[in-house]
Amino acid sequence: MTLYIKNMVCDRCKTAVSQELRKLQIVFQKIELGEVLMNEIPPDDQLNAFKKAIKELGFELIDDKNSRVIEKIKSEIIKKIHDKGHKSKTNISTFLVEKIGKDYSSLSSLFSEVEGTTIEQYVIRQKIERVKELLVYDELSLSQIAIQLHYSSVQHLSKQFKKVTGLTPSHFKNLRPHIRKPLDKV
């Protein structure tokens, strides 16, 4: 059995959900972004207590199938963009088809209908958030960031960054930590 959870975007989210499950003595096998794999459904009282506890943390159990697919799309995109070890240049449509097992046109239509934006725009916003994060860490040059995030050039990254944020990467770097959004608000 799998519980699907909305707004899980990072390892800290997985840790927070894990802690709540343990507090309530709910047995689980594994936690991934947006998913908790379990052997069996917990009793209603435990499940309701879990729903309440995670809601206070900004998470929510997802019941309907379409919402699960949307959250799966988001979590796979986030993993792909924010995983330093992810070297694949596979385009996003092929990547999502492989990960979710549905044709891209139906995924794209569903995502646009529910989220009010395209998958491509969501990917761009996630990439820009990753660029912001890497600029704040100040460990990589803009050229290295462009390579890591599979931009065709530094100019393309800079143009996209300015279009999304209204700032150049260098101007952002000087302003830094005050303007990053949490990943679940992107």
Please give a structural write-up.
- The protein is of the alpha+beta class and 186 residues long.
- It has three domains: 2-62, Alpha-Beta Plaits (2-Layer Sandwich); 65-119, no CATH class; 122-185, Homeodomain-like (Arc Repressor Mutant, subunit A), CATH 1.10.10.60.
- The chain contains nine helices and four strands, in the order βαββαβααααααα.
- The protein has helices at residues 11-23, 44-56, 65-82, 92-100, 104-115, 119-137, 142-148, 154-165, 169-175; strands at 2-6, 30-32, 35-37, 60-62.
- A four-stranded antiparallel beta sheet has the order 2-3-1-4, sandwiched between helices.
- β2 and β3 (35-37) form a beta hairpin.
- α3 crosses α4 (92-100), α3 crosses α5 and α6 (119-137) packs across α8.
- The model has no long low-confidence stretch (mean pLDDT 87).
List descriptors.
Alpha-Beta Plaits, 186 residues, 4-stranded antiparallel β-sheet, globular, 3 domains, Arc Repressor Mutant, subunit A, 59% helix, alpha+beta
Short description:
The protein is of the alpha+beta class and 186 residues long.
Topology (SSEs and partners):
Blueprint: E1 2-6, H1 11-23, E2 30-32, E3 35-37, H2 44-56, E4 60-62, H3 65-82, H4 92-100, H5 104-115, H6 119-137, H7 142-148, H8 154-165, H9 169-175
Antiparallel strand pairs: 1-3, 1-4, 2-3
Helix pairs in contact: 3-4, 3-5, 3-6, 6-8
